[in-house]
Specification:
2 domains; 4-stranded antiparallel β-sheet; 9-stranded mixed β-sheet; GMP Synthetase, Chain A, domain 3
């Protein structure tokens, strides 16, 4: 079965994680997918990935697992698919790793996050996403255990914290917003059990970040920046307090650099190399050789300060060009997120006959438009100031917390 691919189209569970580890131990590559995909979406995604099998039920998963070795050293990474914001999602393929490379891959995660045999990882996000699956696998490989409360529900998560006393948790900002709102109403549980709370997936509003730091034990909260393709940075919240807006410095063993246009490149160890399965031209566009080794990009834009801390300016496809000036939504969001009364914000462009694109902001919170206009005038250059504000009860987001900008009002 080595080098075969198996698509997983069923909800996450303990058996799911066990099966993923067994497959990777055998050199088989699981393709974790959202079980809610329509038949048409499944066909579109899987047509280029050539899976040997598609698993849709617990019985099929059990039958598959029965023929695989016990979990051991994973010889590769699951073949997650990119979000597919442009075109058909691409399968990110690590290829079979040598035992030395596979050992280094496991050690990198273990050493960064401190996974240990006494860890209890609380799983909040669907396990077909790369980050929650990576944290769950790292915990199990270190001898720890995982807790899966089911589809995200603040009350269920709170109950799991009280009864299971988890030590680690990966989350997205939307999870934090909903948990803190629930705790404001029903009382905050004892969070002293946590040694690690890591968030990623979407920018974290400033007020929410400060509430996160206040709620959890000192030194326990982290942010990291990464993608389906690979990981770039990790940042303790204490570093963020000293440098608001940063997503941290390069992870150990990696290097960051940016092009003049802001495109971010990350040089990685050999075990972190990848290709886009069946798409050599896309793979070639994502990689280049540097004096430090092979570096990849996912097209994100950012800036590095003198100490190597990275600040994101956004995705290239999110760039707003207004009056011939490049406006980076993430930068504007970080600034306006500091306006009193702003709980959440998304900045985006709308076609405009005068400006080409008009900078717009969708705002969640109690801030009035006049207050936002005044705050923008004080803190942003004229081209970056939104010309239109809309007020929403909540922002439309994917399950991983990314804003669905195409659904924001024009």
């Amino acid at each position: 079965m080595e080098n075969e691919r198996v698509a997983l189209l069923l909800p996450g569970s303990h058996a799911y994680v066990d099966a993923v580890l067994r497959m990777l131990t055998a050199g088989v590559f699981p393709i974790p997918l959202d079980p809610r995909l329509t038949p048409g979406e499944q066909e579109r995604i899987l047509s280029g990935l050539e899976p040997t099998a598609v698993v849709r039920t617990d019985a099929e998963l059990a039958a598959l697992t029965a023929g695989l070795p016990a979990p051991g050293l994973p010889l590769g990474r699951p073949m997650h698919c990119t979000s597919g914001t442009t075109g058909v999602p691409k399968g990110v393929y690590s290829g079979l790793l040598s035992p030395a490379e596979a050992t280094a891959l496991v050690a990198e995660e273990r050493d960064l996050w401190g996974f240990a045999s006494d860890d209890v990882n609380l799983v909040l996000s669907p396990l077909y996403h790369s980050a929650p699956l990576r944290f769950a696998m790292g915990t199990i490989l270190a001898g720890g255990r995982i807790v899966i409360p089911g589809p995200f529900d603040p009350a269920a998560v709170t109950a799991a914290i009280e009864t299971e006393r988890p030590t680690t948790m990966f989350c997205v900002p939307t999870h934090l917003q909903r948990l803190l709102a629930h705790w404001d109403e029903h009382g905050r549980p004892d969070l002293s059990c946590f040694r690690l709370v890591a968030h990623a997936g979407a920018p974290c509003p400033t007020d929410l970040k400060r509430r996160l730091i206040e709620a959890f034990p000192a030194g326990s909260t982290w942010e990291f920046y990464g993608s389906t393709e690979g990981q770039f940075t990790a940042c303790r919240s204490e570093e963020w307090l000293a440098r608001p807006g940063t997503v941290g410095r390069a992870r150990p063993g990696r290097r960051l650099h940016t092009d003049p246009d802001g495109t971010i490149w990350c040089t990685v160890p050999e075990f972190a190399r990848f290709s886009y399965f069946g798409a050599p031209e896309k793979t070639a566009a994502a990689w280049r050789e540097t004096p430090d080794g092979a570096a990849f990009t996912v097209g994100d834009l950012g800036r590095l300060d003198a100490d190597g801390y990275l600040y994101l300016d956004g995705r290239r496809e999110d760039l707003v060009i207004s009056g011939g000036v490049n406006v980076y939504p993430t930068e504007v969001e970080q600034v306006l997120g500091g306006c009193p009364g702003v709980q959440d914000i998304a900045v985006y462009g709308v076609d405009d006959p005068q400006w080409g694109q008009r900078v717009c902001a969708a705002v969640v919170g109690s801030a009035a438009e006049a207050e936002l206009v005044a705050f923008a005038r004080e803190n942003l250059a004229p081209p970056k100031r939104p010309k239109t504000y809309v007020f929403l009860a909540e922002l439309p987001r994917t399950l991983t917390g990314k804003v669905r900008r195409s659904e924001l009002p024009g």
